[in-house]
Design a protein that fits this description.
The complex is a heterodimer. By secondary structure, chain A is an alpha/beta fold. Chain A is built from ten helices and eight strands. By secondary structure, chain B is α/β, with parallel strands linked by helices. The chains are: A alpha/beta, B alpha/beta.
């Protein structure tokens, strides 16, 4: 199993890029994909064009709420396992699970221990796990996600975007999450990268940079709220993703 | 036991001892007393006299000593008028019979030509093999010890037809049992019947023809004795150890086929000494439980098609199936596999179709072991990609089975079925869900195999409580709809039983050290009436977690000696706490907030603390962020209470614990609560009303202050004084 995680500041298009990656992998490499929506906004499914049944977070809350009247004799482990497995969105091209809101107040060690074990076992059934993370990397810091093969940090051409990317890069180090390769993905790049941005990237110590061009088709799909899945093969962004994936997987 | 059967056994013993006497004298007339007697190629002396009496008989003359012992044991034949307890006498008669048998058989080995073929298998028309030599005994005996062969059936007599003889032999072979055959009745024996049917016999096929003589039965018990000496570490003459070893380790029994005469009764009495019961197909007198064998001693009459199953049951033999008979790989490694929709051949139950799983216990005669029935379409009758209902109905029977074990077995269905490669299972009870993938289907996996798995593994892992298992797999909605109602009723009864569980009703609590990673000295003790303070773990979870991971953070803790029943203090619990808190805590009271209260990691749902001037306590839920009458907010309180230290007057606990009868019961219980945050109060209102009712306090809920009326201790006191809260009139807390 290979794990690819996408993260970055909000609004940089990471969810869009995640869906394009899933689409490309599914079309070209394997349909044994577990897509994990680890952003509390929960919209990866919209872009992929599938309805969502439930989120792991909601299930965890439900379990905590029902703690003393679970279906008789069932352990929390088994109840949670059943619920998580049934929350999975199954399609011919990929399966999707949404993590939902990270926890509220109080103690979640037990629920999270369970959740982590379940996700670990589940993900081992797939050739690829693609995680759409939010910038805070809540699930990473809570250790609900495990080691990562490829981490793609997405930014636009703003200084604040690059700073966030730098922060994430450092956070990863602190978390001791093992990351094999780390890429900075610059999204919506029209022409050349402005000087101050290049400077900033250098300051943040980021390398392995890849650019995705601004894509009119993509923008239009987004504007009318359509899923990204049926996007044309020749769209600029999709082409760029193809190159990126080929480079990563070679 | 009846006088009749004792009389017959004792009479038989007298006949055989007399016969041994006669034959020995005859032999001594013909041959010198120095004539060597032995069972050829055996390192031991004659096994029964050697093992039981410690005698080393090597010569014909030496047999006279054994005869003396046999005569010494012979009890008088019961008087026609006098009734006595007969068991002791019968056992003595049985032992005397075995000594006589051994004399008779030993003499045979001095004859020329030898009446037995000293080979492992019959050859050239020579059927009878006599005593097994040492090579055979070493080779085969070890199978009895390591469990490859659970035991042997000593078959005496003959069957009404050759066909029945073959069927019984086959059934015993299938159970991996050895079949030792001896003692012809009216000139016919089971071994000859098998010979006529062309059945291959010998040690290789586990069908061993010892001899036509009733005395040849001694080779079965001789074999058993040698196993005890060779593998059981029993010393010659230590008859207690020899006999006990056989009772506990060698699962043998006697099948009495056809008419049972006095001499055969005497053999049965001999076998009972070893803990081997006799099962007869004819109507003879019974000896039901008396304590020598594991269960009954003599059972009759048993029909031929039931006789093997009955014998296994009476002997307490546990059938183990080493390999689960299914066409796909089986093992815990496959437990985590999920079957993706694309790979799925069939989906069963789950969100779209009804289903349930149910284990129930039955009487032994109501269950046919290994019977698996599929009611509704089998896998080959349904289309790929179908969704169908699924009910798994398991009936188990066992001498040691209790209805309390039903849910434990039921919970295992999930883990066991999941071990099959290409089969995936979720849930339990009426929330079940399964998938079988295309590959498993291609390899020939069927619904019936769910039953095969459960049959094999229930025997293998729960053999202690399970003797027989039969399974019905339902795949049609009509039957399921009907049965699910019955199952649900049982589920409800079970839940009610669990809800009624009290700390006093169990002798074991469970520890939880899941949080020790950040509160190294903290140990939770989870009791039926006090769930873990995080609110996530109750006693049953602890128990289940321990069963799944015996070395995990939940360990069973025996209560041990009661030190203080009111405060909830037990010796073994104290010891456990001491050892597992890195020797930081020595004493712990489960039911007190004042004296040695339970510590907290930092995970508590609620914190309670004493408000001294009110003579009561306040309880705050962790979501409440405002000020509390203790002068601290939840977060500050949490900092005080957490980290595994005992702070008298403060405890962390679950919401659920507030409703427990054991909630600070040593200090007066929930009546002490004078303040709660309003959200907790609202959530717990039913519980508080119930407590008020139980305590005979009207409007108890209203007497409890919350942050809308009081956020300082003085305000609480004013409020509860006005409301006449019961805490004010209770004895001082400390």
């Amino acid at each position: 199993m290979k794990t690819l995680a996408v993260t970055g500041k909000g609004g940089t298009g990471k969810t869009t890029l995640t869906s394009l990656i899933i689409r490309w992998l599914s079309r070209n490499i394997s349909k044994s994909i577990l897509a994990v929506d680890a952003d509390s906004n929960v919209n990866l499914n919209d872009l992929l064009g599938v309805p969502l049944k439930n989120t792991a977070g909601a299930i965890r809350e439900e379990m905590k709420f029902k703690i003393h009247n679970l279906p008789g004799g069932m352990t929390k482990q088994r109840f949670l396992d059943y619920k998580i497995q049934s929350s999975l969105v199954e399609t011919p091209d990929f399966d999707l699970i949404a993590m939902g809101r990270p926890e509220g107040l109080g103690c979640y060690c037990y629920a999270n221990t369970l959740l982590r074990d379940i996700l670990k076992t589940l993900s081992n059934n797939y050739e690829y796990m693609i995680i759409d993370n939010e910038a805070g990397m809540e699930h990473l810091s809570r250790r609900t996600t495990q080691n990562i093969d490829y981490l793609l940090i997405v930014s636009d051409l703003s200084i604040r975007g690059i700073h966030t990317a730098g922060k994430i890069s450092r956070l990863i180090k602190e978390l001791e999450t093992r990351v094999k390769e780390k890429y900075l993905i610059l999204n919506r790049v029209n022409e050349s990268i402005p000087g101050p941005v290049t400077e900033c990237i250098k300051e943040e110590g980021l390398n392995l940079i890849f650019s995705i061009p601004e894509d009119g088709d993509l923008l239009k799909t987004d504007q009318i709220g359509k899923p990204i899945w049926p996007i044309l093969e020749h769209s600029l962004a999709y082409k760029a993703i193809e190159q990126l994936m080929k480079k990563i997987l070679q | 036991m009846s006088k009749l059967i004792a009389t017959r056994a004792i009479r038989g013993a007298h006949k055989l001892v007399a016969r041994a006497d006669k034959e020995l004298n005859q032999a001594l007339e013909e041959k010198s007393p120095q004539t060597r007697v032995e069972f050829p190629n055996t390192g031991y002396y004659l096994p029964i006299s050697h093992g039981i009496l410690g005698m080393n008989i090597e010569t014909l003359g030496g047999l006279k000593e054994l005869l003396k012992e046999a005569k010494k044991l012979l009890p008088p034949i019961p008087d026609k008028k006098l009734w006595l307890p007969y068991l002791g006498h019968t056992l003595d008669a049985g032992m005397a019979t075995l000594f006589a048998d051994e004399i008779i058989e030993a003499i045979k080995y001095t004859q020329n030509p030898l009446p037995y073929l000293p080979e492992p298998n019959p050859k050239d028309g020579h059927l009878w093999l006599g005593a097994a030599n040492d090579v055979i005994m070493r080779e085969r005996g070890i199978e009895f010890v390591d469990g490859t062969a659970p035991g042997f059936a000593a078959c005496v007599g003959y069957c009404p037809s050759n066909k029945t003889a073959v069927e019984i032999a086959r059934e015993l072979q299938e159970k991996n049992l050895y079949v030792f055959m001896s003692a012809a009745t009216e000139g016919k024996s089971m071994a000859q019947q098998l010979q006529e049917e062309g059945v291959e016999m010998g040690w290789d096929t586990r069908l061993v023809p010892y001899g036509t003589d009733v005395a040849a039965t001694i080779h079965s018990l001789g074999f058993a004795t040698r196993v005890a000496l060779s593998f059981g570490g029993a010393q010659p003459g230590d008859y207690q150890k020899v006999l006990r070893y056989n009772k506990n380790r060698v699962f043998a029994f006697v099948l009495a086929l056809g008419p049972v005469d006095d001499e055969k009764h005497a053999q049965a009495a001999g076998a009972i000494n070893y803990g081997f019961p006799t099962i007869a197909d004819t109507d003879i007198d019974k000896i039901l439980p008396t304590g020598i064998c594991t269960y009954e001693h003599v059972v009759s009459p048993v029909p031929h098609d039931k006789i093997v199953a009955k014998a296994i049951e009476v002997r307490g033999l546990k059938i183990t199936i080493t390999k689960v008979p299914i066409p796909v790989a089986f093992g815990p490694a496959f437990q985590g596999e999920r079957i993706r929709k694309e790979d799925m051949y069939v989906e069963m139950a789950g969100q779209k179709k009804p289903g349930f799983e149910f284990v129930t216990s039955k009487e032994l005669n109501e269950v046919e072991d290994g019977n698996v029935e599929v009611i509704g379409p089998e896998i080959d009758e349904i289309k790929e990609g179908s969704q169908i209902p699924l009910a798994i109905w398991v009936e188990v029977a066992g001498r040691e089975m209790q209805s309390d074990f039903e849910p434990i077995l039921e919970r295992q269905i999930h883990d066991l079925i999941n071990c099959a490669h290409g089969v995936w299972h979720m849930g339990q009870r009426d929330i079940n869900w399964a998938r079988i993938n295309k590959e498993a289907r291609k390899k020939g996996f069927t619904f019936k195999h769910f039953g095969s798995i459960l049959h094999a593994k229930f025997h293998g892992e729960y053999g202690k409580i399970v003797d027989k298992v039969q399974i019905k797999i339902y795949t049609r909605e009509e039957e399921i709809a009907e049965l699910i109602t019955a199952a649900r009723q049982v589920y409800e009864q079970r839940d009610a039983r669990i809800a009624d569980m009290t700390d006093d009703s169990v002798d074991t609590f469970y520890s939880c050290t899941l949080c020790q990673s950040f509160a190294p000295n903290h140990v939770c003790i989870i009791t039926p009436e006090r769930s873990g303070l995080c609110g996530a773990y109750n006693w049953l979870d602890g128990k289940a977690a321990y069963q799944i991971t015996p070395t995990g953070p939940n360990q069973p803790v025996k209560k041990g000696k009661v030190i203080d029943p009111k405060k909830g203090q037990w010796q073994s619990i104290n010891e456990f706490i001491f050892n597992n808190s890195h020797k930081m805590l020595e004493v712990f009271n489960a039911y007190s907030i004042i004296e040695y209260p339970m510590t907290s990691c930092g995970c508590f749902e609620c914190i309670s603390c004493v408000l001294p001037s009110t003579n009561g306590i306040m309880t705050v839920f962790r979501d409440y962020t405002g000020m509390t009458p203790s002068g601290m907010k939840f977060s500050t309180l949490a900092g005080t209470v957490g980290g595994g230290v005992q702070i008298p007057g403060f405890i962390g606990h679950s919401k659920h614990y507030i409703g427990s009868k054991k909630f600070i019961s040593a200090d007066g219980g929930a009546k002490r609560i004078v303040w709660m945050d309003s959200r907790l109060k609202e959530e717990m209102k039913e519980v508080m009303r119930r407590i008020g009712k139980e305590e005979g306090i009207e409007n108890f809920l209203d007497m409890i202050a919350d942050e809308t009326v009081a956020i300082t201790e003085e305000e609480v006191l004013t409020y509860i004084t006005r409301m006449d809260h019961p805490a004010l009139s209770m004895p001082p807390m400390f």
